[in-house]
C-alpha cells in the first residue's frame, strides 16, 4: 500500500502527535511504501513566526528520524519543496463543494482559537491536504481522530475527480490507532492536546525531566478520588490513564488495579516516571540529530527528489485528463 501522512511544523511535537500518528508510521513503514511529509504550507494558515520556520522544519525532520522513520525505506520531505502540492490543490479546489468545506470542524475550532487570523488559506486547508494525499495516489493515511474528517473529504474529492475525468485516484482510508487517536489537553481534558496551546497543556517529546514532572503534577484531574477510567465523569484521569497504558504497555484495568486505594498524587508521580523513561531515547537522539543539520538536510533533499518523481507523473496525468496543456 502507498501511505501518506504529515505533521505541521508549528512547534513542539507532543505525545498526542506521536501516539495518534507517528507511532503508527513506524509500524507501517515495514510493509508499505510510505511518504512522510513536513507540511509547512499548512503551518502558514495559523499565526507563526517566519524566523522560526526553518528551525521547526529541521526539528520536525529530526523528530521523524528520532522516532524511528527510516529514510532508506520511507520518503521524508518538505511540502513546499514539491510545487505540485499547490498546483493540484488549485485544481481540486475547482471540484470541491463549498458546503463540504464549511462543515469542517478543524476550521471552526481553529477560527475560534485564532480569532484575528481567520483566512481563506485556513478554510481551504482541507483541499491542500487532499492534494497532499492524492498526489501520491495514496491508499491509506495514518492520522489522529481530528484529521479523520479531512480524509473523508479527500475520499469525496477523489470520487468526484474520477467521475468527472475518469478513474485516476484511489479513495484513501484513514488509519486510526485503536487507542490514543485523541489525546486530550493536560489543562482541559475536554479539548484535544495541541502544540499551539500553552506549553503546560502538552508533553513535548523533548521536555526535560523537570518539565514532565511539573506538567503532569499540575495536570487537571477530577473531583472525587480514585484512579478510575470513566471518560464522562473523570475525563482528566481517563486521559492520563490512556497515556500511561499506551506508554507502559499494560492495560488500563491493570493500572487501575495497581493504584486501587491510592491517590491522584501517587498515580501522577508514577506516570511522570513512565513518561521520563519512555521519552529518554527521543531526547538523546534528537540532541544528536540537531548537531547534524547537514545530514538531516541531505535526507530532506533526497526525499524531495523521490517525492517529485511521483508528484510530476501524477500532475501530468491530471492535467491531461482535465484538458490542460502539460
Ligand atoms: N491530541 C492528539 N491526539 C492524537 N493525535 C493527534 N494529532 C494531533 N493532535 C493529536 C495528530 O497528529 C498529526 C499531526 O497533526 P498536525 O501537526 O498536522 O496538526 P494538528 O492536527 O492540528 O495537531 P496539533 O498538535 O493540534 O497542532 P496545531 O496546534 O499546530 O494545530 C495528525 O495526524 C493529527 O491527527
Q: How would you describe this structure to a colleague?
A:
There is one protein chain. The protein is mainly α and 326 residues long. Helix content is 55%, strand content 7%. The chain is built from 13 helices and 5 strands. β4 (140-142), α8 (148-165) and β5 form a beta-alpha-beta unit. α9 runs antiparallel to α12 and α10 crosses α12 (264-290). The two termini are 28 Å apart. It binds adenosine-5'-tetraphosphate. Adenosine-5'-tetraphosphate binds at residues 7-8, 10, 16-17, 19-21, 143-144, 146-147, 181-183, 192-196.
CATH architecture of the largest domain: 3-Layer(aba) Sandwich
What is the approximate shape? globular
CATH superfamily of the largest domain: HUPs
- Under CATH, the topology of the largest domain can be stated as Rossmann fold
How would you classify the quaternary structure?
A: single chain
Extract low-pLDDT stretches. Answer: none
User: What can be said about the biggest beta sheet?
Assistant: 3 strands, parallel
- The CA-CA distance between the termini, in Å, is 28 Å
